């Protein structure tokens, strides 16, 4: 019971409660002023009755009054207070908030009533008007369901003038997003308090697409290249549904992109103006850019400041942008990367190389000053993994295994960046600038952390110098006779402000240490011994050595962050090529498999925990076809037992219908490999196969007849690889070399030696790095012993090995039947160049050559030449469509030729 409290206090409490409810109304409703006075009066009037009301008494009933069209049951379903339980003030306020949130009511007043049965809570409500009709007039290009979903209006929903007016804006925005920039939307009904119908009148207007993009005044850069820098794209063939939607907001972005592109090539004074024109019905837009390129700036001189660790000659070895050449921001960025990498390899993780331009009075000339802040070397104290996601299951070792540095190592900037790229290549984690992996480097405060005891070793009687070593300053006499602009154009300076001074790409480094990497552990060893132990870690350095003071290494912590991605995939595809005919594919792939995490409950299966989290790869594929079929199950652990060894196990079933016989293979493979360095790797493999050869063509050669039926293969193989390619897919620089030896035992005993190599050269590229012309040279050499069965001998021909000849068209024959050779030497030279500026269409010119023979010989050497196209279609996957035409220049009479070869694939 409410006793012992004055009426003023009780009324004051009631007023505070009422004001709280009013605040809820103001926040949620905003226009329910008519409900305020009854609320205050109702609550204050109850104070006289509260002398006999116990608010801790359970609620006997909850009722609704004032509702006309909305059932009380539907209203009470929105509240939380239940019968038979007490209702606190906060609970009542929460129910009021929930009722206002429905937007059904303009007023909600809670009232207590004392009845014979008990305490009753009554919500007195005042309903908003209800929408009786919603109509959209004049729409054709957008479906009714989409309009209804955009507005959210429907019959029976609360009538709200503000919501109706907001729906007008939403509909117009929807049309603008679809390209109807001149669409008009009017609210015919629904804007007056007395309305109960909501009617929109829509005038869609034309869909506006870009029909033409023109450039005037550009001489150095072609129209095609400039178009690749624009967000705005032309409608293909003028067909609107294929793209080309016009958005005026992108024009300014396009202007900025064009200016930045020209600035990056040294055109600092470029001026670009745009002009937008419409046709009569405003359905087509023509955009014209007028460009005044101005002079292209050359580098007159390059100066270096702040370098102590490296001489100026050593610094200049890493600078490709030399005096006398045109300025190029891409080359400049690479130079900065190489310089920071040079320092980073010595542990100077926070060294900064800042290129500063000095514009001269002479037009078209600029000096570059590389300002270097070397900082000091750092070592790694600890590495911590942070894996995020909706329900992260991945073990921390999956994130730490690709790291090429460990606690105690020098903080090698290149190795840290290489580690990041290795993590990015792991399909377990998300990619991209927002969600992709990142490595945060944090300096350790020496005043708060206990470092190695040798850190404080100083000469007796001296104090440790706590101040950072000052950079040596030398008078710069080179500027004495040079005149510079007093105020360089700000737009030119902006180019350098945006220049990345952190490493972007690195050469493949060699590890700085050998032996076991203990990942995830702290390193607490002391600082390495100085070159001259007599002087210890003196701040004055070794008087026998360098003239500069030796700085104490600092310590850093590495925090590695990554977010789990969707690692399970079910893919469907279809392909057709001149070697294997038509094939379909169904692939189940899991990039984050864990063979040691079987399900322990149904929940593990439902939430995806089972068989996941170990960073292993599992792949099951079915590839049926009219000429070849393959079924495969493969499991690979790239870091077996958290080491640099990889382990793989696979099982397969394979059938192939050759011209001369049919072949069926069932078996498995076991492989163990190790990445020796970033470029060198070694792999061993054991293969066990049951090979069935059947339906041979007649007359059957003896070597073929000897293998008809079931055969068992047991082979051991070891291979060594050296890979310096800049990309595993469509490389432009570097090489891939492989040496392999294989020994078969058991039913067949023979040896096999192979060597393969590919070298890639970029012979030409635009100043922006695009439009590369790539020359690729490749060679394959193989020899196998006399006991080799016919199904393991060498064959050539087809788009993968020897264009100009049919699949397996280059081989020794007996009675017209291919029997394979024991010796194979194949080579290819190919020149690829883009036809379009976006490099979606490329042309190739090639020559394939070589021989397959019974013995080591070049007597039957073949040569073919040809040309082809590479068409990249994003909707069909990353592998381009290959169309090749080739003609043999040298061949044997029994060879089978083929002028046209192709590959087309589609995967989803």
Textual characterization of the structure:
17% of the residues lie in helices and 35% in strands. By secondary structure, the protein is of the alpha+beta class. Helix 1 (7-28) runs antiparallel to helix 2 and helix 1 (7-28) runs parallel beside helix 4 (89-101). The longest helix has 22 residues, at 7-28. The protein is globular. The two termini are 71 Å apart. 24% of the residues are buried.
List keywords for this structure.
Ubiquitin-like (UB roll); globular; 15 helices; 3-stranded mixed β-sheet; 16-stranded antiparallel β-barrel; alpha+beta; 17% helix; disordered N terminus
Amount of beta strand: 35-45%
Task: Tell me the span between the first and last alpha carbons.
Answer: 71 Å
Q: Nearest-angstrom radius of gyration? A: 38 Å
Number of helices: 15
The biggest sheet amounts to: 16 strands, antiparallel, barrel
Please give the structural blueprint:
Elements: H1 7-28, H2 36-45, E1 59-65, H3 72-76, H4 89-101, E2 105-114, E3 119-127, E4 133-137, H5 144-151, H6 161-177, E5 184-189, E6 197-203, E7 209-216, H7 223-227, H8 249-264, E8 271-278, E9 284-292, E10 298-305, H9 312-317, H10 329-344, E11 352-359, E12 365-373, E13 378-388, H11 396-400, H12 413-424, E14 438-443, H13 490-497, E15 554-563, E16 568-577, E17 581-593, H14 602-606, E18 616-623, E19 628-637, E20 645-657, E21 662-675, E22 680-694, H15 702-705, E23 709-723, E24 734-745, E25 750-764, E26 773-784, E27 804-805, E28 813-814, E29 817-818, E30 823-834, E31 841-853, E32 862-871, E33 881-890, E34 897-898, E35 900-907
Parallel strand pairs: 1-3, 4-6, 7-9, 10-12, 13-15
Antiparallel strand pairs: 2-3, 5-6, 8-9, 11-12, 14-15, 16-17, 16-35, 17-18, 18-19, 19-20, 20-21, 21-22, 22-23, 23-24, 24-25, 25-26, 26-30, 27-34, 28-29, 30-31, 31-32, 32-33, 33-35
Helix pairs in contact: 1-2, 1-4
